Amino acid sequence: QVQLVESGGGLVQAGGSLRLSCAASGSIFRINAMGWYRQAPGKQRELVAAITSGGSTNYADSVKGRFTISRDNAKNTVYLQMNSLKPEDTAVYYCAADRSWRLTNPDYWGQGTQVTVSS
Question: 6 to each of 3, 20, 39, 43, 118, how far by Cα in Å?
Answer without folding.
Answer: 10, 7, 15, 21, 21
